[in-house]
Design brief:
binds iron/sulfur cluster, alpha/beta, 13 helices, globular, TIM Barrel, 2 domains, binds S-adenosylmethionine, ten-stranded mixed beta sheet, 422 residues, Outer Surface Protein A, domain 3
């Protein structure tokens, strides 16, 4: 048991800390802890370089607790022990642990931790599962100036920006957008099909925390069949080579379906050539082009199919010299909480999406027509007042629309690429 004394603690500098209302999200490279207001108060006081004894007194005063009560002492000790066991804090003078770490977000306000920006709805591929129905005829590119104004008002309160699309690299100003946005956040990730990496300048590659490339095949034929782009395979391999050479952390995402899952070993043959930060698997959700008669029924893998992929993966991990973070297939997240219309994963709260038209949505996968709620300017006013957007009506309308497609909310399962575990 930790005795309440004059010790000073510090916070793990490898983790990210984000205020959200009264809580703090602590993200480690592996997972996210959502600390309640009591834990959050303790954590922020530790960060202010205050001794454990003084923090204890401060908390007792704040929560009107009796300092001498043994149960209170025990409960406080438990909090310190738990934070310690989770490696969030350590006693002072530990390598990699610090005070005065800059937290993103703002106490009492609901600034999102992650914003995914769809820079365009255009794409050089036409994948049959694409929820965005992107293609090379679509041509909306985000208005950079509105974006910069929005982020300058947010003033570094967002921990992480993800750039996506369509194909984000097709935005004519992709390099400047990345340079500019870096002023406003700690991390920028790029989600791309990997075919246009040569367009990114060297200094821009250095800014990126990571690049996620979704692999849509394992040779020229399979790539062409899925993406309808003749040079796609060669372009993607070229892209992977560039980012490996420039030491940008690579995340590979593989979308599994009935047609490709048994070729997982061939995908592994490609990724073996690169140093991956993470390997993710997804399965198409029934949105956009994935709803077409042609693709219907191809996305759901059976339990046996999933076991097969997981076994192949296990062999690869066991034989691999690269220690990589691998997400085994998850496919279980329900969209709605038990008795209310809100997204169980927190989408729309700690994560929001900005579309190519500068409109806000809670999740990139959910249909734009039903979930586009307000402009970025209106959204800023809402969160700046300390409110949070209520998407319950949109979810209700979505449930009604699903019924017409013979689906229910229970059918909408998510593989959780956005790292929010439920
Ligand atoms: C819309 S894409 C944009 C980024 C880039 N063009 C790419 O394909 O990686 C973002 C991610 O969503 C995935 N995706 C597309 N349609 C999907 C669907 N119906 N269900 C689940 N994921 C989907 C893509 O495979 C990709 O990993
Ligand atoms: S999934 Fe990505 S690469 Fe495929 S069409 Fe959609 S935006 Fe393009």
């Amino acid at each position: 048991m930790i005795i309440i004394n004059e010790d000073f603690y510090e916070l793990n500098g490898d983790f990210n800390y984000h205020y959200f209302g009264e809580n703090i999200y602590v993200s480690t490279p592996q997972t996210i802890f959502n600390l309640n207001s009591l834990y959050s108060s303790v954590l922020s006081l530790i960060n202010e370089n205050i001794s454990i004894e003084s923090i204890y007194k401060y908390i007792c005063n704040d929560y009107k607790l009796d300092e001498k009560d043994n149960e209170v002492i025990q409960a406080f000790n438990n909090i310190i022990t738990e934070l310690n066991t989770k490696n969030i804090i350590k006693i002072k003078n530990n390598n990699k642990y610090f005070n005065n770490i800059l937290f993103t977000g703002k106490k009492h306000k609901y600034y999102p931790k992650l914003i995914l920006i769809e820079l365009t709805n255009q794409c050089n591929f036409t994948c049959p599962h694409c929820y965005k129905e992107a293609n090379n005829k679509k041509n909306i590119f985000i208005d950079e100036n509105r974006l910069y104004q929005f982020f300058s008002k947010l003033d570094n309160k967002v921990e992480h920006i993800e750039l996506s699309g369509g194909e984000a690299t097709l935005h004519p100003n992709i390099n400047n957008i990345i340079r500019h946005l870096k002023k406003y956040t700690k991390h920028i990730s790029l989600l791309t099909n990997g075919s246009n990496i040569s367009k990114l300048d060297d200094d821009v590659l250095k800014i990126l925390s990571d690049i996620q490339i979704t692999l849509y095949g394992y040779n020229s034929n399979s790539y062409y069949n899925f993406t309808n782009n003749k040079t796609s395979y060669d372009d993607v391999i070229k892209g992977l080579d560039i980012i490996e050479k420039k030491h940008v952390p690579i995340i590979v995402a593989i979308m599994l379906n009935k047609q490709n899952f048994s070729f997982i070993d061939k995908y592994i043959d490609i990724i073996k050539n690169y140093t991956l930060k993470d390997l993710r698997f997804g399965m198409a959700m029934p949105f956009g082009r994935a709803l077409s008669e042609d693709f219907k029924g191809k996305y759901n893998l059976s339990k046996e199919d999933i076991n097969y992929v997981n076994n192949e993966l296990e062999k690869y991990i066991n034989n691999s010299y690269n220690k990589i973070e691998t997400h085994h297939i998850r496919y279980s997240t329900l969209l709605r909480t038990e008795n209310e219309y809100s997204l169980k994963c927190g989408a729309g709260k700690n994560i929001i999406i900005i579309g190519q038209d500068c409109m806000i949505r809670p999740c990139n996968m959910l249909p734009e027509d039903l979930f586009k709620v307000c402009s970025i300017e209106e959204y800023f006013d809402i969160i700046n007042k300390g409110f949070i957007y209520d998407f319950s009506q949109n979810i209700y309308d979505f449930e009604k629309k699903l019924i017409t497609l013979n689906l229910t909310l229970e059918d909408i399962k998510c593989t959780g690429f956005c790292d929010i575990e439920v």
